[in-house]
Amino acid sequence: MTVKTKNEDDVEGLDENVDSGLGDYPIDTMMIRKETRTIFDVVRRIQNGGFVLDPDFQREFVWNAERQSRLIESVIMRIPLPVFYLAEDLEGRTIVVDGLQRLTTFQRFFDNSFALELGHQASLNGKTFQELPPKLQNRVEDCNLELYIIDAQVPERAKLDIFERVNSGEPLTRQQMRNCIYTGPASRWLRDEVEKPLFIEATGKSLRQKTMRDREFANRFCAFYLLGPDEYRKSDMDDFLARSLTKMNKMSESELEALSEAFRTGLQNNLNLFGNHAFRKHIPDQDRRSVVNASLWDVMSTGLARFSEADVSKREAIFKNAFYALLENHEFIDSITYSVNSTNKVQRRFELAGEMFSEVFDVA
Question: Where is the GmrSD restriction endonucleases N-terminal domain (predicted)?
Answer without folding.
Answer: 41-182
